[in-house]
Design goal:
154 residues; Class I SAM-dependent methyltransferase; alpha/beta; 7 strands; SAM-dependent_MTases_sf
Length: 154
C-alpha cells in the first residue's frame, strides 16, 4: 500500500498490509510521525519529499503539480512496480491520483480523502477512474478503480 501524506491513517492502515509506503512533504511532521511509526509500525517505509512554504509561491494550501513535482514523483524512488491500494491524503491530490496510474495492480483501488468536499478532485476521477464507493458524511472519502488498463498512456 502507498499513501501520500502520513499520520494516524498510516498507523491504522499499515496494520492490515505487509508493506506500507508513505510520502510526506512537511519536515516537522515527518520527524514527529517517523518516531511514532518506528515504534508502532515497523512495516512502514516513510520518505520525505519536502516542500517548504514559499516554494514556487506555495502558501500552505493544497498546492499545484509544479510546486509539488518532487513530492508527486517520490513514488518513483521506491522501486515498487505495482501497488494494490493507494490512499491519497496529502497535497496535490488530483495530480498524485493521476501519477499513480501506471503503478496500479490489476485489482488496485485508490482512496481519495476529502473527495466530496473538494470538487476540483472530480475531473481527474472522471477522466481516469470509476467510482466504486463513497463516504459522504464527516471524513469524506471516495474509492476508485482505474477505468483503463494500467500502464496505458492517457
Amino acid at each position: 500500500m502507498l499513501e501520500w501524506g502520513s499520520g494516524h491513517s498510516t498507523l491504522w492502515f499499515s496494520q492490515f498490509v505487509n508493506k506500507y509506503y508513505a510520502i510526506e512533504h512537511d519536515r516537522s511532521w515527518h520527524q514527529t510521525i517517523s518516531e511514532k511509526l518506528s515504534a508502532e509500525a515497523p512495516n512502514v517505509e516513510l520518505t520525505l519529499a519536502a516542500v517548504d512554504k514559499g516554494h514556487m509561491g506555495w502558501n500552505g494550501e493544497e498546492g499545484s503539480r509544479e510546486q509539488f513535482q518532487e513530492y508527486i514523483n517520490a513514488v518513483d524512488r521506491f522501486g515498487v512496480k505495482k501497488f494494490d491500494r493507494v490512499l491519497v491524503d496529502g497535497r496535490a491530490r488530483a495530480d498524485c491520483a493521476e501519477h499513480i496510474l501506471p503503478y496500479l495492480a490489476p485489482d488496485a483501488v485508490v482512496f481519495i480523502h476529502d473527495f466530496v468536499v473538494r470538487p476540483h478532485y472530480h475531473s481527474v476521477a472522471q477522466k481516469h477512474y470509476k467510482e466504486i464507493a463513497r463516504v459522504s458524511d464527516g471524513q469524506t472519502l471516495v474509492v476508485l478503480k482505474p477505468s483503463s488498463p494500467q500502464g496505458e498512456i492517457f
